[in-house]
Design brief:
The chain has 333 residues and is of the alpha/beta class. The chain contains 7 helices and 16 strands. This is Methyltransferase 4, N6-adenosine.
Amino acid sequence: MYSVHTENGLIPNYDRNSFKIFLEGSRALLEAGRQCGYLTEVLTAPPSESMPSHECRLAALCDMAKQLPLTDESLMAPVQMLNRDGLDPSLDLFSYITENPFDCTYEVTLMKEKYLLPPRSRFLLSDITRMHPLVNSGDKFDLIVLDPPWENKSVKRSNRYSSLPSSQLKQLPVPALAAPECLVVTWVTNRAKHLRFIKEELYPYWAVEVLAEWLWVKVTQTGEFVFPLDSPHKKPYEVLVLGRHRSGTDRALPEQRLLISVPSVLHSQKPSLSAVLKPYISPEPKCLELFARSLQRDWTSWGNEVIKFQHSSYFTRERAEEPSMTSETVIIQ
């Protein structure tokens, strides 16, 4: 490994080839983004509305639910379905996978709060000690994406969410949930010890072969890195570690790839990987996100704040202008 000098100073933790790929790839993608209008030359004014101040109590509710006795697993179906009238308020959100089986988004009231559930989405609201409904469902997933709440000083100071020691990630039942040749993708911060833990301990423990490391590069609306490359603390990129469970496939997977986007204003919200990973998984795959805080169409999601960003306060409602269309369309704020 080398430290590469640029006009802006020292860029650590890159060999010369990787650094060249990073800069040249970023430059090409940013130019393409400007040409298609995704990026602008002038920073647009931020929305006049402030971000929702909804206080999320989901994690606290999950902690309380741990005090309840476990349901007899031999007598329960692991999935409860949304019906046309919404959800029965007496349903147990902590012991069952909840599914919206319909081809439209449903607004439902859960625990006296309104949430929007995307079409054909499923979720389990629980902490790491109560994941048995996922295992008991019998589903085997072709893609598992994890966004662990890594321990770091910034999160500890902000108190935005609870972090999890790396060692506890081994409790996740990934081998029981993974289909043959399942693609496992983990978001990781730029701390070297977290990256080493995934590659040297976590993935081998799950029988996942490490195949690639991709970078998500975060830029502003004008195409500037959100942090300087030579910043000693925060970096303008995050790493994705990709591997396959019990790999034996010859399906090619690029060892290096750059993904560039403007990050969400919602803290720690990652871009969807569905389209990017589609060429590397089976057709009509079953997809699972662990440590999710929002839902995706056709995905199963798990976490102790799994529907946090599905709260209605994060959305605005617009009525279609065409006279022939009378339905309402919900768009993200």
